[in-house]
Amino acid sequence: MPIVSIMMLEGRSLAQKKAMYKAVTDALVESLGAPRESVRIILNETPIDHFVVGGVTRDERDQLLAAKAKP
């Protein structure tokens, strides 16, 4: 029974997530020969303000980039 854990930033639509679930399931069925009903997917969505790179939040990074883009 394949169990896949996926972490991503929140914000994608339910339709996008369903398409991803199908694609991941199809890939495991095809590559491993796993029965479709045995595939398990755990999705962990992280709030955008909990994603930090180099001590800078996504919001702070977007503000810095916007300030640099202004003439």
Describe the structure.
The protein has a two-stranded parallel sheet with strand order 1-2. The protein has a single domain, classed as Macrophage Migration Inhibitory Factor, CATH 3.30.429.10. Helices cover 44% and strands 25% of the residues. With 71 residues, the protein is of the alpha+beta class. It has two helices and four strands. Strand 1, helix 1 and strand 2 (40-46) form a beta-alpha-beta unit.
Give a concise summary:
The protein has helices spanning 14-32, 58-69, and strands spanning 3-9, 40-46, 52-53, 56-57. By secondary structure, the protein is of the alpha+beta class. The model has no long low-confidence stretch (mean pLDDT 94).
What is the number of beta strands? 4
Poorly predicted regions are none
The domain tally reads 1
In percent terms, what proportion of residues is strand? 25-35%
Structural class by sheet pairing and helices: alpha+beta
The span between the termini is 55 Å
- Overall, the morphology is elongated
- Average pLDDT, all residues: 94
Strands side by side in the biggest sheet:
1-2
Please report the first level of CATH classification, the CATH class: Alpha Beta
Provide a count of the helices: 2
What does the main sheet amount to? 2 strands, parallel
What is the radius of gyration computed over CA atoms, rounded to a whole number of angstroms? 17 Å
| CATH topology-level name | Macrophage Migration Inhibitory Factor
Determine the fraction of residues in helical runs and give it as a percent range: 40-55%
Report the order of strands and helices: EHEEEH
